[in-house]
Amino acid sequence: MSFLVNPYWFGTGGCTDADALAFLTATGITDPTITSAICTLVTSMKANGTWAKCNAIYPFVGGTSTTHMYNLKSPLNVNSSFRLFFSGGWTHSANGAQANGTNSFADTYLIPSSELTLLNTHLSFYSRTYTIGNGQRDIAAYTLGATPSFSLGTNTGVLISDHYWYTTNRMSRSIPNAQGMMLTSRTSDTVHKAYRNGTQLGATDNVSNAGNVMPSISLYLGVANVTPLAPTSYSTKEYAFASIGAGLSDAEAATLYTDVQAFQTTLSRNV
């Protein structure tokens, strides 16, 4: 008796998830450690309900600008799939994408007003960098001096989040350093929270944001996309994960961190 064996099954560590396989095919990644990490991340996020809430997921694997650009949710090299377009002096390695704090940023091509639901949004990033930095924006788009604003970043000793204000009603929470997973989420008009490594930072910001709108320009990674001016507040962080999507509950924020930390641990780049 003979059996037909698909050799690609072995090359992907036995992964059968269609979304994980689509990403691996698009990036050309065959490394068994990475393929296993990607497959586990996707299946775990699906099981925990966070996969469906993300429009874009950037796992930063493969060590090159080409592999780092792909959106795990829609791994196509087109703007409509929110693939990253890197500009300036980035350093790409197995640990992720390192911004230079001077001119590096990545356009996500994701326009919040077109793709996201008002009062139901989240932003996250996983940083391997210890230094917080002054006035750095990690995922951001806003109109200078006014609403709408949608951003997540750091200032000296604090994590700053806007959903969807600029300065007015901005949420600021103390953090010891910039390492780990930072996440900000809005799930209603009056529920705006920030998390570090799955744990909520401080109290819920319950200031009303009813009547506001989201930016109609694309979110940038590593800097704030600002209209009508040039990008500002460049970051120096090394990114190992980022996500954009719908608002997350406390439980979902915690499980997303657990899944992402397990992913980073498999890749030996966890902090």
SSE layout and pairing:
Elements: H1 7-11, H2 18-27, H3 32-48, E1 54-58, H4 65-68, E2 85-87, E3 91-93, E4 96-98, E5 105-107, H5 112-115, E6 121-127, E7 136-143, E8 149-155, E9 158-164, E10 171-174, E11 180-188, E12 191-196, E13 199-200, E14 220-221, E15 224-227, E16 238-245, H6 250-266
Parallel strand pairs: 7-15
Antiparallel strand pairs: 1-16, 2-5, 3-4, 4-16, 5-14, 6-11, 6-16, 7-8, 8-9, 9-10, 11-12, 12-13
Helix pairs in contact: 2-3, 3-6
Strand count, sense and barrel status of the largest sheet are:
8 strands, antiparallel
CATH architecture: Sandwich
Under CATH, the topology can be stated as Jelly Rolls
CATH top level class name: Mainly Beta
Q: Determine the mean pLDDT.
A: 92
Regions with pLDDT < 50 over 5+ consecutive residues?
A: 1-11
Task: Give a summary of the structure in a few sentences.
This protein is 21% helix and 30% strand. The chain is an alpha+beta fold and 271 residues long.
